[in-house]
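Handout, tutorial session.
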Amino acid sequence: MFGMAGMFTITIYLATLIQPFYNRDEFRAFGPGSETGVGFILIEGVFILLFTFTIIWLAKKNLQKFIQFGILFVLWIALSYSLVPMAHLALPADELTATTTETDSGAQILQGLSDVEHLILYDGNDLISVNQAIGGDGLYAGGTVNWTTNVSNLQGEIASPNLFFMSSTNDFVMCDSTQWIRIDSNDGTILERYDDDCNLGFVDSGEPWHIVRSSLMKIDPFKPIEEVNSSRNANWEWLMPQGFDPNNILASEHIGENHMLIVSTRWAGVFEIPNEPHGEGFDAPFIEPVWNYTLPEGNMFTAVTYGSDTNEIKNETANEYSLYLGRIDGVVNGFRVHSNGTVIANEAVSFEGAFDGPIRGLLLEDCCNGGVNDLWVLDGEELNVFMGSSKIDRTRTTTISGDEMVAIAIQYRTHSDYNILKEGVILFDTNSSSFDEPLNMVVWKLSEAAPFEVAGIGVSWADLIAFGLSIVLMAAIILWPEWYVVNTTGILVGAGVSVMLGVSFVPWIVIIFMVAMAFYDHWAVNGSKHMLTLADTMIDLKLPILLVAPKDKEYSFLNADEGTMVERDRKSQISKESIETSDLTFKPEKEQKKTSDAMFMGLGDVIFPGILVISAMSWLPNEVGFAGLHGPTTVAFGTLIGGLIGYMILMTQVARGKPQAGLPLLNGGSILGYLLTTIVILGFDALAFNITLF
């Protein structure tokens, strides 16, 4: 019993070791976004049933060799899924490395205007476009200046320190409380300029707009608002919502064709840009927000990022984007913003309890030109990088000293050998009040290319070793299928299958699957009994889709009797009937010779609890829960303990010589362990029933 429990535990432990290798969007069974689809797990269940009945049918047709080699091929694939990441753990390759240093500044980074090819800066007088800002010698991180536009001396005076830049209709618009300037983003040419007071300016349908203190107004080119005697058109003036702070605007974005997103220190909101006057004269109405979010007193937004999310191909014309708001208390809120202006909470993202705060910086940008964004979070002085739909943390111990809020930009390096991924730098402007303080710079370098290439895919030495071991194990199964060879292969196969399904589905989907398969297993063992026939087929063919625990040292799996499970069930039924119908008491004969025997457990009895363990690790909120315990890890451990309790009850029955359906007890124990541990460690909110059909 303890030997079988050890194999049960080792299988799931190995699955947890290789889980980080497969916890990526490209390895989900049905692709990114499918993890909540109950329809996909139903498809998995149908395949399992088809597999079972196909094997039984082939066995009845005496096609055992076809069964043997067909299953061995499938097992070889599953075995490779385990051995490849294990080989990489044993022979780790150089991963992407990050080195923190400093580089010359000379200006402030404007995060909302910069992209991976051009860094946009402001030095107190000029707006500057720079490329190749990758830490070379000289100002602007050693970059080459594309164009420079002076925005301070247009009126013969220095621009106000209370200024704000935003990207609007592919141009840049600057407001500095004294002037409104529209600048061509391609060459820096000034396209429009008005001597109008403004805190934020933008262009909509070719018309200039500005926000002045708490008022939203369309600019009248012939009636500057500074001129007291100028009677501006009050029908094009609206009041901004309560909570909006015009002097502390963090970010603004155009949403779709006619909506505007603005984030200030305690208020964030989306409103529709008016396309006709309100007609209420000088009694300006409040602009009605489509969505708004106000923080309580004492809290504040400190960082904002907006764009394609980490599981989406970067797209400048998408109908929906992600918005992340960082706060001084360490909370990062995620939202989905539609082009029609509607905003909903991003239920797929939970960073509650993950950060200490303050959140000094946020950025949605592609690390290495891989086609999808990564989420960069500067939590206090620690830089975190999250990737994929499940926001896998790829942090590489990077510290950005200081306590002020930062502007962040990523710049790629050019290199003749680059194919898809690129090395580069990420720049942090940690002092918005200084133009001369050096920028913090993190330089990342990609790992070296694999030494071999097959069909355009890199193959490392670890891959070759894993491939060789899988062939050796398959040869051993065919030539010498002793119990220890079967167990070794079965453990590795079970770990691989557990991971592949665990990273593909959220816990509730897995639980539904486990409950359905438990009912099926009970019927298949105690009702139709075809599962016993299937087990005998696997034992007869010496295939590693079960685990074998010998009861004594003389046992040999090579000499296992045919029809073992069916015969045990028959003897158990005869024994039971004899006890019920006879008054005789039978005593064992002391002279009876000891026979070699073993316990058997189907690999599925280990895989299903393992799937729930891996799912908990992959999909539960990555946060610290009760008593300072890490939520996903603790719940995974609790799920394993629940499965072991179910196992002990199961093996007590098996030890009496009667074949038992394993899944009802094993799955039931694992599910109870998961539910109880989740409630205690993370609370009832972590049990949200977030599933869909597909």
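The second record follows below. Compare its token runs with those of the first.
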Amino acid sequence: MAIGVAMLGFGASGTALALLGAEARARAGRRFPLVAALAAAALVASPALAHLVPLDPTQLAWDGRQWARLGLVYLCFALPFALAALGILLALMLEPERPGLVYGASFVGGGMGASAALAALWLLPPGRALAIPALLGALGAVAAAPDAWAAVALGIVGLALARPPWRLTVTPYKGLPQVEAYPDARRVGERSSPVGWVVAVGAPAFRYAPGLSLDYRGAFPQQTALFVDGELAGAAPDPARGGLEMLEWLPTALPYALGDRERVLVLGAGGGLEVASAVAHRAHRVTAVELSPELVRLARELSPGVLGDARVVWIAGDARGFVARTHDTFDLITLAPGAAFGTAAGMHALSEDFLHTVEAYEAYLGRLSPRGVLAVTRWLVVPPRASVRAVLSAAAALRRVRPEAVRDGLVVARSWGTVTVLAKPAGFHVAEVRALRAWASIRGVDLDWYPGLARPEPGFHRLDDSALSRATAAALAGPEAAARFAAAFPFAVAPATDARPYPHHFVRLGSLAGWLRESRGTWLPFAEWGPIALVATLVQSGLLAGLLLLAPIAARRGAGLHSARVVAYFGAIGFAYLAAELATIQQLGLLLGHPVYAVAVALAAFLACSGAGSMWSDRLTAARGWTVGAGLAGLLAAAAVGLLPLVHVLEAAPLIWRGAAAVLAIGPLAFGMGAMFPVGLRTLAADDAGRIAWAWAANGVASVVAAPLAALVALEAGSPALLVLGGLGYGAAATLAHVPTRAS
């Protein structure tokens, strides 16, 4: 959505210049200083105005007012991009002989800005970091045209830095505002970094014990709630204010019934509840991996007695990367359910999560000792979805590691709120199954599947649907049976893969219309607002693109539409650029360990290398420009096949080498992509200002629609499909550039 809004502003600037007419464009030199200053001021005004709009995206399905508010938010955020792009466009008018230099300079600056944004989030809290882009814009205005307008813009930005005119608020659907509403709740810690904004809240009424047995009658330890970006990330226990015997009654303690687990690996350790459980179960060594370093520090400060135990080794980093790099083996690898059930109104459907893909489970199984067990716990929702996918994914991973283990290597346990899947490549022995059944019986936990189970047994917690038992039976019957079961299931529950890492996405887009036709009460509990918001973004952005970019130019006689090739060429490269960029960002998320780092590195590399390619394009003859597009089509086709395997090979490398590899992989692609726009200007628009404005607008239209459309393609078909589409776009542009030009 953010990229689409940015490109909406860029495209609208082309429309504005086309509507100003030739006489106004002739005064580009006088307009440039004012536009540069306004762009910097708009970076202050835009977020302040957007935060005044009472938008609730969860009501888009039935409240028409929310669509209007979403459009207003679009316009607010698009404004600074429109003004900045208009400044670039005016600079192109002032330097018609060197479009590559001007366009390339804007790209290089964008790459530097992506790096500056990452640095700002290390140094400043999010509210103040929001003023840094405005500061850079104001300094740019002063450097380009040091006049009164630039001085005013710099003054406005200075005031925003001292006292930001916006207040960042957390949606009420997240856990932080809900827990802060508890009696006597108060914040006891707060940290921020590019990885996330971490807040600790102490509240006497707060309890976090996923799936705790209803038969538990013991003491409950005092806990401090920990949140990352407003989402509940776990709880730090304080054993001095309550015992830890509760941990023995959590479903995640099930694997300890198999006997001592000497070496335990906790992935996504969060607030440390599973770390405390491993310590309480007498593990000799506990390795806890958590992505957010600030969360690790805060949790250890709040619970030093347990989380600071000498047996615990904390790793602040990416779990997949750690598993790829370590040579250690573990008796237990455990993944807790993660964020609280039902948070963020279903927006997790759009979250890329490489911890719960088949390749991830396969990697975890490969790091188990001969008696080791993988334990994956997911929240239970009705009808079951995430838990069914966990069963199918664990079975698929077991089949890859040791095919014969599928028959006797799975156990599925269910409480009132969670489902725990145990996977053991060596298989569960009869004595181990007996121990698991005894543990579950005492604690009122249902075993939906275990080796030797003939048919589902009556349990403590009744479900209307025996989906878990049926899913396990299908998985054991073979991959074809598992695929048939997943295809027939009402929700999308097929295992997620690294090429399509959306394990929290369950609603098929093709069924959305059917859900919306149902009465609100029947489909609302199952809705995933992420895909709905994405479809809304596509519709909204398409309508706004047509309104702001196409309609005014089409209505104005002589607006510059001399050839349909201009529209087709610049539209094709606009879509192809966004598709390739988003697909690469997704796959680099696995390589670099976090989407924030992937976005920063990918944007910086894409923009800087595209800028270099744009500058180089001034040396390229227009007649040879089509070869660049043809080469890009081939490179993107190769990336669709080879980029993800390359990422898997490099996962175990140190971060600095992975970052360098990412830049080297992006560089040749981005270099050629940056050349396509200025070459197209010289080939199809020459020095015709009207055609330049139209080309800019057409490129913006395609980019606006491409951002949400590319996200939908990635959600449904995966990132390799996006790379293929990007290659087709550049191939089409190369064909259009190679066709001989007719006199218009």
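Points raised in discussion: The mean pLDDT is 84.
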